[in-house]
Amino acid sequence: MWGDDEGGFNVTMTQSPATASGAEPKQNTVITVAIRELFDSNEENKNTHVVVVGIIKQVETQTLKNMFTIEDNTGRLLCIQWGDENELSRYPKLIENAYFKVVGSKRIQNDKVTLLCHSVRPLESLNELTHHLLSIIALPLITEEINMTSGTQQSIATNQKDFLISGDNANGFMDTTNNLSLNPKQLKVYTVIKRCQDEAGYSALDIQKILPEKIPLPEIEKILSFFIEEGHIFSTIDENHYKVTDFGS
Description:
The chain has helices at 35-39, 85-90, 127-166, 184-194, 204-210, 217-230; strands spanning 29-32, 48-61, 65-72, 75-82, 99-109, 112-122, 233-235, 242-244. It is rod-shaped and about 80 Å long. By secondary structure, the protein is of the alpha+beta class. The protein has 6 helices and 8 strands; from the N terminus they run βαβββαββααααββ. The strands form 2 sheets. The chain has a 5-stranded mixed β-barrel. A hairpin with a 2-residue loop joins strand 5 (99-109) and strand 6. Helix 3 (127-166) packs parallel to helix 5.
């Protein structure tokens, strides 16, 4: 439970023990946060560990616990570090006005937010502070990318289902007007991209998954290159995802 280093819990352990009923253990999530974020929600999740970095203030040592506040540029948070006398003596010394990294679980008692500490240690260098701040900035972007990927996969599944129901030449899927004078394979690829509802667009692999006729990937990529040259499609989130332009729609 409590380790001999870093002031406590080993944060590489991400599973809680299995229940007596034999149920699957729950996964623990570790996220980097600014202190203010912990006060923005009235909920606590025992399977989520948070990482905060800040300056230690107001250290109070008692028989079975250490209490201290940690402060960053967004707020202050009361932290509690439990342990017996031997355990507390092995933890890193809490130094006021020094930067520390704390890993713990958010707790709410009597409407007061505290952090139950699993790991407390001083920063080895200010590079850790920079990394922590960049992680906070990056987290929403990573979440957005995950959601975007999830939405793309849902769109792929929907279009694949529509294709199988409608058939290759059914009006419900194929663009039978073919105003762009495309050959049959080009028309199929173009129609898949045209029907994409996701802002990220489709990649060559996405298109291959949707088409029941498995066109080789190099051939799809060749068709996409042709579309780019002709101005029929444009790249979106990167050079490998595409949506149709307004031309020929």
